[in-house]
Amino acid sequence: xxxxxxTFPAVAPTLDDRRFWELCANRRLCFQRCDDCGGLRxxxxxxxxxxxxxxxxxxxxxxxxxIFSYTVVHHPSHADAKPAIPYNVVLVEFDGFDGVRLxxxxxxxxxxxxxxxxxxxxxxxxxxGGQLLPRFRLIPTDRPAPAS
Length: 148
Ligand SMILES: [Zn+2]
Known about the structure:
CATH class of the largest domain: Mainly Beta
Order of helices and strands: HEEEEEEEE
Bound molecules: zinc ion
């Protein structure tokens, strides 16, 4: 079941983030990496903010991340999200992907279950029109961390 109701508007890709969403459609969460300085960035931009290079590639993030921060929303930003309240919004970061944090949601998590530093695993959510969205599920604390 989608995180938000099927009436919630789909993401409308722009020229800058179209490739990000194309990769998501193939269940690949990838971030831009500058070809010249190696810096990662998100959201996608045509120009590296560090060295102004226009050349970049896409690096696939690990499937497991960590909650950097979160909030629980009781007043939805869009009327079609009202049936989902209270819903969470999380910032997820990934090992080896310094400088990149993804705004997303944790599926099937009560507000009390969320914590800064909590480990999450990607779970592709089918949004409006079948668009695949990178959302997450909590990893039980008794599950061992992956070898790094
Ligand atoms: Zn750069």
